Amino acid sequence: MSMSFLSFRGGVHPPHFKEATARKGVERAAEPKVVTIPLQQHIGAPCEPLVKPGDRVKVGEKIGEANGFVSSPVHSSVSGEVKQVARMLTPTGEAVCIVIENDGLNTVHESVIPKGKIEDLSGKEILNIIKEAGIVGLGGAAFPTQVKLSPPPEKKIDTIILNGAECEPFLTADHRLMLENPEEVIYGLKAMMKVLDVNKAFIGIEDNKKDAIESMKKAVEKNDQIQIVGLHTKYPQGAEKQLIYACTKREVPSGGLPMDVGVVVNNVGTAAAISNALKTGMPLIERIATITGKGIKEPKNLLIKIGVSFKELIEQCGGYSGTPGKLIMGGPMMGLAQYTDEIPVIKGTSGILVLTPEEAKLPEPKPCIRCGKCVEICPAFIQPLFISAYALQNMHETAEKYNALDCIECGSCSFICPSKRPLLQSIRVTKREIIAKKRKVK
């Protein structure tokens, strides 16, 4: 059966760099001796610690309580003794962390028991299981999943889309998941469909992963509610608005959200985590991540416990090949550069990328030549050159008039710019300023 591959307007074609790990099956990482678990590893309010130094904890035990609506609880990924609760460095800045010494026994907490079958649970019960399991978006944004699945009553949702595009170069964690555990992805998707009471779902996968498309099609062949959609391999094909347009031809309005057009988007890894929480009762304490790049000796896809240090995982991949030029959590387009490897893996760590010094060298930016390439390829239909220019002049109100907040921070503009201008970086700054000002006004 031939598929017509779908897409969106704009976007770029960065090299994939996925060959190093695309065919490597997921291996379980070695047991960490110590884990450092941040109480802030999701968008929203940080958790309150539930343990203190000297306490003993078990695998899957809740150690951080989410009190805000937009928040997500945190659980221990090991059994052992709490050594300290203190502010420490994490990949996204400083946060209070719980340091636990692993006793190596992996004693599972009493609360970790199967929660029942989807058909026996109500949508409300499933939603609560997802919340209590600390499940957040595993594509990298780490938005609490139960919030996405609780739209206000006036927003009628009729479609769920799972993102299996994994358009970010270097990363292959979702690809491996769809090959190795397609039924977990489908089970988690069915649970979400029950929560939102919808009977139509799409799973979007880029056409450079033909094996994943086949694997997922096989997993849904008896299901007419779930459709596997082949997408053109183009960046940022996995971005929410672009994915929605490719699958449904609906356009999310400027300043709007997917739910404004009746859609909820989640990542395939998030769906698998939901399946695991229902079937085993285990909350989100581990995830698949791709450890890769020319700066790594033996790139791998690893199943890693939350809280293990980047340094330890890099050592398990043969260590650095030469001097590292740049260390990034995530991929090269949207990842966050780090200045140390002594930081813990968090729920949003989809990958650890190490570039060589040659690859990491940033060219000197030249003046904008007004070629318009950034406008042509911008998938959010904004004008990066103008927004960036206003940002660099601290003219944030003008930048806002140019719809700076519609920027999805995909980095396509910086990638395509012949003058190598820091377009994404400056737009990011102005977005933070605009949002901070809005908060003050409130």
CATH class (first level) name of the largest domain? Alpha Beta
CATH overall fold name of the largest domain: Rossmann fold
Distance between the termini: 54 Å
User: What is the correct CATH architecture of the largest domain?
Assistant: 3-Layer(aba) Sandwich
Query: How many beta-strand segments?
Result: 17
Number of domains: 3
Radius of gyration computed on alpha carbons: 21 Å
Our estimate of the beta-strand percent is: 15-25%
Strand order across the biggest sheet?
1-14-13-17-15-16
Could you describe the 3D structure shown?
- By secondary structure, the protein is of the alpha/beta class.
- It folds into three domains: 28-111 and 283-359, Ubiquitin-like (UB roll) (Roll); 113-280, NADH-ubiquinone oxidoreductase 51kDa subunit (Rossmann fold, 3-Layer(aba) Sandwich); 373-441, no CATH class.
- The protein contains 15 helices and 17 strands.
- The chain has helices spanning 19-22, 123-132, 145-148, 173-180, 182-196, 210-219, 240-248, 268-280, 310-316, 357-360, 373-377, 384-392, 396-401, 412-416, 423-441; strands at 27-28, 34-38, 48-49, 56-57, 62-65, 74-75, 80-90, 93-102, 159-163, 201-206, 226-231, 263-267, 286-292, 300-305, 326-329, 336-338, 351-355.
- Strands 1-14-13-17-15-16 form a six-stranded mixed β-sheet, sandwiched between helices. Strands 2-8-7-4 form a four-stranded antiparallel β-sheet, with no helix packed on it.
- Helix 2 (123-132) crosses helix 5 (182-196) and helix 4 packs across helix 6.
- The mean pLDDT is 94.
- [4Fe-4S] cluster 1 binds at residues 368, 371, 374, 417.
